[in-house]
Amino acid sequence: MPNMLSLLEEVASPTIGLGCMNLSHGYGAPVPEAEGVRALQAAFEMGYRHFDTATLYGATANESLVGKALEGRRDQLLLASKCGMAIDPALGRKVIDGRPETLRRQCEASLQRLRTDRLDLYYLHRMDRQVPIEESVGALGRLVEEGKLRAVGLSEVSAETLRRAHAEYPVAAVQSEYSLWTRNPEIALLAACRELSTTLVAFSPLGRGFLADAVPDPARLEESDMRRGMPRFSAEHYPHNQRLLTDFTALAEALSMTPGQLALAWVTAQGADIVPIPGTRDIAHMRENLAAETRYLDDASLARLNAMMTPDQVRGGRYSEAQQADIDTEEFA
């Protein structure tokens, strides 16, 4: 059974992958298809090999975009997608469904949209609290045995859930938000991943743009931007959080890095078994992020960073109450 790191080695992928969600979902209006295709093809040409998408993103539009943009390059990619959470067209809203028959149906539809006969990594996007995790993961394991998947992943789960799932079928990767200002995996998940040789895939390693100093005023974000509903970006908490950036951006300048590159260098410094997947819709930012692959931190700089934006310093939860109800991760008090 291949693990995440061996999948990356097969395609000579840099450690840093590309989260494709931003092109279609979550951060305002989706980009026009032609622009998205150009961005993804440019990402491949500049060296990205690990591309991450999901059934949910853009109500399946993101998978279709990735499939169109990267067709003909399949054997040169680590292609990852997710199931178990989708937009129900009849209801017009997100639905979490981890039943085996649903996961199989979504997998087969993902393969069609991505124009491939197999996915390298397929995550259960959210745990369905109505379905034992063993049933959901067992269903994904059967899809591996049929050759439709190469490895199974989980997203936004606790250490306990990971252990239960892994006992049913090997879990190659767990995707969780991880950055300098979101250190929840350090509570228990990261240790469980290392115990089980499961790779931690860090999404939002730039703090949803915060650590790249790209959100001067959340009130100016598009109405459909998910950050407008996140407590950390609220009018109540954001001014305080923004002040935490002062020392961070000063250190980035002293190290001749952009703030975004410093944020990525911090994540990669946490271990070779941690794979960040920053997302952006901007080609120049894709290039900037990938350049962080060769930026390293000395012990003194790493110690300074570790003392910044600790959980007791950051104000506001990372999710709204409704979003928090859908996840299974450990939370700081």
Automatic annotation (TrEMBL):
Gene3D superfamilies in alphabetical order: NADP-dependent oxidoreductase domain (3.20.20.100)
NADP-dependent oxidoreductase domain location: 16-307
Pfam families listed in its UniProt record: Aldo_ket_red
Keyword Oxidoreductase among UniProt keywords: yes
GO molecular-function terms, A-Z: oxidoreductase activity
Keywords linked to the UniProt accession: Oxidoreductase
Residue ranges, annotated region (Disordered): 314-333
A GO cellular component entry from the record: cytoplasm
Record's protein name: Aldo/keto reductase
Naturally occurring in which organism (per UniProt): Chromohalobacter israelensis (strain ATCC BAA-138 / DSM 3043 / CIP 106854 / NCIMB 13768 / 1H11)
